[in-house]
Sequence to fold (256 residues):
Amino acid sequence: MNLTIIKQNDQFLVDSREVAEMVERSHSELMKTIRSYVEYLGEGDFARTDFFIENNYQDIQGKKRPCYLLTKKGCDLVANKMTGEKGIRFTAAYVTKFDQMEKELTIPQKSASIQSFEMQLIGVQYTSQILRVDETSKILMLEQAHNQHGVATNHLPIYVDAEVTKSLTVLLKENNTGIGAAKVNTKLIELGILEIKERPSSKGGTKEFKSLTEFGSKYGKNLLNPRSPKETQPHYYESRFKDLLKLIGYLEAQTA
Fold:
């Protein structure tokens, strides 16, 4: 048996038409029974609306017809006079449904701000995976998400990267290579160390940026571009830069 619970003015109620259908009685007969209960309740110290609430509906001809909305106490009164399988099945149905609805009320619901914070954390997770940013950038992204929602950041780690990284342009200059970053970038892309990614542009269309691949991560790391947090800025490990120059064939050419 399925029973529809109506929530009205912080109360859970059942329509008398649905009760009549469940117990296989005509609605008019059930209304007569409920009216007798209402009359008896009026003579005592009980509030009728704690059990039955007058209501109405429109029939198929558009005419207004009376009905009642039953509270859990009202269902108890109706079920108390019923015997046999119908009474047992109706009692089981409304008790189960009312308990289910009451339990749902006691479960704390997440606020919109918490849901927004959780969604942003998911965004940070997927963005950091897609862009393959370094650990420092991940922590920075997490701090920004926390600060935006007013969440304390004292549980976040303080990450210190001991290995020095620099931009390609700076390292090429420091090593007196005499070659430009554009030429080296082309070679790095050919070797699968760098890749070109795209992001939506604020002016429409897309904008390209460079990102170290998983293979390229042994030679450097992807930092968040401070001028554009939606894209990365490859930096290379100073200690492994000569290995990188060998890989692109520069050192061998110089030696020859």
